[in-house]
Amino acid sequence: MFDLIVIGAGPGGYVAAIRAAQLGLKVACVEGRGSLGGTCLNVGCIPSKALLTSSGKYAELSHLAAHGIAVEGASLDLNAMMARKDKVVGDLTKGIGFLFKKNGVELIEGWATIPAAGQVKVGDTIHETKNILIATGSEPTPLPGVEIDETDVLSSTGALALDAVPEHLVVIGAGVIGLELGQVWARLGAKVTVVEYLDRILPGIDGEIAKLAQRALSKRGLKFQLGRAVKAVDAGEGGLSLTVERVGKDTVDTIVADKVLVAIGRRPVTRGLGLDALGVEVNERGFIPVDGSFQSSVPGIYAIGDCVPGPMLAHKAEEDGVACVEGLAGLQGHVDYDKVPGVVYTDPEVASVGATEEALKDAGTDYISGKFTFMANSRARSTGETDGAVKVLASPDGVLLGAHICGAHGGDLIAELVLAMAKGATLTDVAASCHAHPSMAEAVKEACLDALGRAIHA
Ligand code: NAI
């Protein structure tokens, strides 16, 4: 009899399993993919970051002339780039197997179903357990009428494994996946057109910061067609033909491409577990509603990560998982969902935590704001990474409510502001901390000073 069986070895599930074992529970983790780490490690966060880094180095070559460096004869070996990505993924997934052994987590390989509360079935074997944690993650949302074949019409999985650079890649959806993978292929030489339903990119990100990101990404070669919905993708002689409707108008355009990436969101994977028969409540979008201790509507069955309502982010799933099993072990687990950072790993990076300006306006909350552009930051000037800005939002008495960055290393810079918000820090607390010179982090300090009416370099 196990104390806990975790279904799914993604960042939510494997972290929960390890933490539960550390707390003395007898734990098993079931995974059917054949390798550990879930979407994030196998076909998501990690391979995309490997390709973003490799393609970034390639793109950088054409900017070295400004530094007085002439590069001749540079060429792209896509196979080698992909092999490096696969090795990074392979090493990390194997690392989780090592951590399972080290912490005494039993790995059960195969796809699980839940025949009854307290039972997990894998193959023909039924495993008895006191608690079950569903950490089955998410999968790409399909676009009605568009069939993903992973050869020409791709999800993120196919777009991470192309064997040649497309001539024209059309990305459907200007969200995180569309922009990250769109930039990879644009850097490697593809013409990339991003078609987005809304009249802006990066829904959910502060509008002013999203505009800065759009400008910077356009400068780096991405073409945007906003306010357009893709209605159909048909295979023809000249390649793929996309039927694109202008939202709110009767106009229909055609775009021809050789590859299409569908990146219109992700949906929870909760089918096939037997939840209906068990009476586990699943909402109309497939998510499992849970209470404050991550328990579903059936006692002893818990759920975390992408398959429960909330942001679909690996680090949020990890926090869920740790809080859930700490609760099971009698500790006080807690996640502060207002302070979960989000990072888009494009160049420039886009990073945010807390409320956007739009959300504060909608809620009628009084706020003050400050901004500092990287153009005025001496480190950014010396590296040539001057696109973007740091923006902070605070209550009138200075308590940080949100922070948003578009700029190089934004994904690292946001950590200071996450910690500040987690500790209830004020603009003055951040501004009064000494920031090294010259550093990109000085832009964080200056944005806080700006909100206080005291910016030095603006
Ligand atoms: P998303 O929800 O971020 O963006 C999808 C976009 O597609 C939206 O802007 C939407 O308006 C647009 N769209 C929907 N239907 C359309 C249509 N028919 N025609 C044109 N545009 C259409 O979804 P995405 O990028 O697929 O990411 C999925 C999830 O994965 C997100 O929750 C994201 O947070 C997560 N993720 C996070 C990463 C990170 O943290 N760096 C990296 C990759 C994914």
Description:
- The structure is a single chain.
- The protein is α/β, with parallel strands linked by helices and 458 residues long.
- The protein has three domains: 2-140 and 267-335, FAD/NAD(P)-binding domain (3-Layer(bba) Sandwich), CATH 3.50.50; 153-264, FAD/NAD(P)-binding domain (3-Layer(bba) Sandwich), CATH 3.50.50.60; 341-451, FAD/NAD-linked reductase, C-terminal dimerisation domain (Enolase-like, domain 1), CATH 3.30.390.
- Helices cover 33% and strands 25% of the residues.
- The chain is built from 14 helices and 22 strands.
- Strands 1, 2, 3, 4, 5, 6 and 17 form a seven-stranded mixed sheet that branches. It has a five-stranded parallel sheet with strand order 8-15-9-10-11. A five-stranded antiparallel sheet has the order 18-19-22-21-20, with helices on both faces.
- Helix 1 (11-22) runs parallel beside helix 9, helix 3 (45-61) runs antiparallel to helix 4 (78-103) and helix 3 (45-61) packs parallel to helix 6.
- The longest helix is centred in the first third of the chain and has 26 residues, at 78-103.
- The termini are far apart.
- The mean pLDDT is 97.
- Bound molecules: 1,4-dihydronicotinamide adenine dinucleotide.
- 1,4-dihydronicotinamide adenine dinucleotide is lined by residues 143, 172-178, 180, 195-198, 203, 229-230, 263-266, 312-313, 342-345.
